[in-house]
Design brief:
274 residues, alpha+beta, 7-stranded antiparallel β-sheet
């Protein structure tokens, strides 16, 4: 091969950007596939709307706007890839593909993050915020909690999140199990004739911090026969709690229990905003 032919071949190789463009296109197509798979998973979580009120990501206008932007950007790129499929050997097309890929590397994280949070919220664990003082001194208003809802075997003293008939969500402590008889008398709780210990209401010296009385008269005794598939719940702040002692809440059907609280924490981001 002559020197002249080598120069011509090198020039052709330098001006043909098909290889680099095809590399960028393949990466873009993979990114687009991941984005639309994540969007499909997010949509599937909406089919089961039981835990939708606890999906803090989808409830955020900021994340919704970002998701809409990602969708529009992705659709625009599909159109662009289709329109430039016959111009992959051009430098400007190769450079544009590279720039788009760089942007996609950044924004594709958004639907992946939302999908992970939404799937976790729909099937495994959900965040919630304590409202009111009914669970003091163990849970205070404004504290955040995580509730695990991959269980149906609730135990005595579990702290649970439940839904009321008026579609409100309460955090309470499970006291009486299905079929048990709960008696409140003289600031004591008896389950099937046995007085239960409530260490979570004691101070460091073992004295009770909270008094437990019947709803109408503190001097009376009251009995509650828990139905099958239902629970008797109380707030830890017994004197300031709407719970199973009141007909306004009553016994809690198992289907209205949303999960067990497994962690409490302070949301420093919200607290700093306050």
């Amino acid at each position: 091969m002559t020197m002249e032919n080598l120069e011509i071949e090198n020039e052709i190789e330098e001006t043909d950007y098909s290889i680099s463009t095809l590399k960028y296109r393949k990466k873009l197509i993979r990114k687009l596939s991941v984005v639309f798979i994540c969007l499909a998973l997010i949509a599937l979580t909406r089919l089961s709307d039981k835990y939708f009120p606890f999906d803090v990501v989808m409830a955020s206008p900021i994340f919704l706007v970002m998701l809409i932007f990602v969708i529009i950007f992705s659709l625009g790129n599909i159109i662009y890839l289709w329109k430039t499929k016959d111009r992959i050997d051009e430098l400007i097309i190769s450079n544009t593909h590279k720039k788009i890929l760089n942007v996609f590397d950044l924004i594709s994280v958004i639907p992946m993050f939302v999908a992970i949070i939404s799937i976790s919220n729909a099937f495994f664990i959900s965040p919630a915020t304590v409202v009111g003082a009914s669970m003091e001194p163990n849970y205070y208003e404004g504290q955040d909690v995580l509730m695990w809802h991959m269980t149906s075997n609730y135990e005595r003293f579990d702290v649970i999140v439940l839904r009321t008939d008026s579609d409100e969500y309460f955090i309470k402590r499970l006291i009486g199990l299905p079929g048990e008889t709960v008696v409140i008398s003289n600031n004591e709780i008896t389950i099937n004739g046995v007085i239960i210990e409530q260490e979570f209401l004691e101070d460091e010296f073992g004295s009770m911090l909270i008094n437990t009385y019947c709803p109408n008269d503190p001097t009376e005794s009251c009995q509650f026969d828990v139905p099958i598939n239902s629970y008797f719940v109380l707030g830890d702040n017994r004197e300031h709690s709407l719970d199973s002692r009141s007909n306004m809440l009553g016994f809690v059907d198992e289907e209205r229990v949303y999960g067990t609280v497994v962690l409490k924490f302070n949301n420093f981001l919200r607290n700093n905003q306050d």
